[in-house]
Amino acid sequence: MTRLTTVARALITAVAALLAATAATAPAQARPEPRAPKDFVALRSVDPTILQEMRYATAHNFVGERIDGYRRPLCILTRPAAEALHQAQRRLLRRGYTLKVYDCYRPQRAVDHFVRWAEDLDDEAMKGEFYPNVDKTRLFADGYIAEKSGHSRGSTLDVTLVRLPARPTRPYHPGEHLVPCFAPRRERFPDNSVDMGTGFDCFDTLSHTLDPRIQGPQRANRLLLKSTLEGLGFVNLAEEWWHYTFKPEPYPDTYFDFPVSSRSLPGLR
Description:
- With 269 residues, this protein is α+β, with helices and mostly antiparallel strands.
- It is 28% helix and 11% strand.
- The protein has a 5-stranded mixed sheet, with helices on one face. A two-stranded antiparallel sheet has the order 1-3.
């Protein structure tokens, strides 16, 4: 009897050890990704004619790599913002232009990626194009990088004008020679946008929408974009000619973190 009890205890101990080891090595249960509220939409479902060149889903941006959270090159907005942009597109098409968006909804994880990059003072791979005259130690103080972005609320977008018929923009090749974003249009990266005086995401005071040094056709192009969008409820950020927010925002105090992907949207996978 004593021997059987001893064997039973040994068996129980062995089984318990095996279960503990299995539990320790089992993969952790993946947490489900956050999803967008039901009033977020893919812009293409509201207006498929608006061009999309989603820079943060590529390496052609001031960081130099795809940004966290951008699973697809997809513009996502709150429905009111998307519908107002559709109305702007209808007006501009009659004048021979189309809108092109560079960025729309931006997850908080992407903003966090920008912050980590800004804190790494040794990483200046894209300085030659996007911030040639700005010391990287000044990015936070000068307002180019912040820990929160209006884009994460879903009603802010970065946008430009393209003259019709739209020519394709050639692909960016990582490692190619970089030209300052405020160089003359014929010298800087060949975006198919009209000439706005600087490229998109140019960290320079020349990007201020009403900078007095921007005159002639460049200023007229900025003002056409500004007047069209502001006439439909958008508000421009004075420091960036490309940055607009639809008002009133459905989520003025909420910073979302669902990935940029069709799977994040209600009814889409």
